[in-house]
Write a structure and sequence with these properties.
By secondary structure, this protein is α/β, with parallel strands linked by helices. The protein is 41% helix and 17% strand. Strand 13 and strand 14 (396-399) form a beta hairpin. The N and C termini lie far apart (66 Å).
Length: 571
Amino acid sequence: MHTGPLGTLERFKGVGNCPAGYAARLRETRELFVHLCFCLLFGVVGVKNRITMTYLTVPIAAKDIESAKEQIKAAQKGGAEMIELRVDYLDQLNASMVRELISETRNIFGRKKLPIIVTCRSVRHGGEIAYPDQLRVNVLVGALQVGAEFIDLEYESFLSTENKEKIIRALSQSSKGRLILSAHNFNGKFDDMRKLHRRIMTVYPAAIPKLVYKANHINDCFEAFDLLHSTSGERIIFCMGQAGLVSRIIAKKLGAMVTFASLDEKTATAPGQLTIDRLKKLYRFGDINSETELYGVIAFPAAHSLSPAIHNACFGKARLNKLYLPLLVEGGKAEFGLFMNNILNRGWLNFRGFSVTIPHKQNALNFVGKNQGFVEPLAKKIGAVNTILCSRAGTLKAYNTDYAGALDAITSKLCITRNDFKDMPIAVIGAGGVSRALVAGLSDAGADLKIYNRTVEKARKLASEFGCSYAPLEDLENIEANLVINCTSIGMHPDIDATPLPKELLKKDMAVFDTVYNPSKTLLLQQAKQKRAKTVDGVSMFVNQACEQFKLFTGTEADVKLMSRVLKENL
């Protein structure tokens, strides 16, 4: 029989046979003793294998040992810092199979001994195959017996007395094993995340708490950020889903023990999981630390944006401790305002600047003005901003770099000067933020502008501000213009088969400028070339305005060639 506190604990199993008068009191005593054992274990186990870094962890989710070995080799090649063996994916699972997989993992990594997490998730909490609790716990116990550094069990499953006793006993016999107690919510935020965190640490103080929930909006992420900021030690906290992607990237900055990255999109084990290649290369995971300054593009949608690629490449080349993120802010003015206030109320996040694009350019202008920030005169005239700077003190400055970027792209590609815009008939499709910047610049140059938009009232309002004409989109069939400019997102990836102007309306003596940069050759531009019309793509405009933003972010000139090369590679 096992000796020591856990051996004494085993002898309490006879409680059920005690006389009725003593049973309740003995049960209470037994629970108190269990808690004391956990505290004793915390004193011993808590000093083992202390984590001082954020591990980039790759989950291995395979149906059989051979497939798992191939994934492990790929993870090693990709630069994984920890492996999670998701054994709930294995067919016909048993404890000996897991022992074999751990042994194979050790052989593959050789002298480079990477830590291993063994997870056998219940289906209720995202597991692949519905294995019974008894088997799942036996598998985790077996993993500890052959030297796994970590096992992951759901907090809910751990509350079972039988499961708890088996796991605690196995941990006490392991020289280095640690327990991750996890909780997941695949629908949204926890009712009380802090309370759940306290419960986990009370039930087993030596546990590494893992709390993961789906962010239905980026504003849902701040509760996870706050918990990471207000706690210390080993803990795993992040959000799932596209809105929660940013939490996976900055987990290292906020001191989380682990962030997960898949080998590829097919082997992802949770929604919103990045690939290891993307996390390491695009987001420069190895360079992130607690002092990293954050920047990002506020957009809806945001996944298509190539701004993170070009800005992070330039940050990296200049050896700046800065990171640029995709910030998916759904909704309108209210949601944008809430996001910005969440940022401003958390100076410790160290956000210093934002690019702003569809549909928030006017929301950004209004927010900065409302918060007594500086708005450059040009941006006020345009009525939209695409760049926000945020100081350490929380003061805001707003600019618009679209105007110069677009006009420089047109004049350069068409070999004209800004003076040539005078009296030129120009059709502008769209009445959003990019349209406002172009209309302001072109009207100032004396162009003869006509604005076409689906919502006629929006076109009328913009036209009245700058003294030009307007029409509904249907009137494009009567278009008469030397230059046509698409300022909408029509034709943007992934809807690459769409065009704002039917092919039959394009003419040889017409120039066509599409502000969409992804793809660089939109359907509109392809069809314009077929008609032998001159074309200007959105890449030049995008690089021009991004260079101006980089200068505002850093006070230094951007590497234009690097930006252009990275953009073309990603396109």
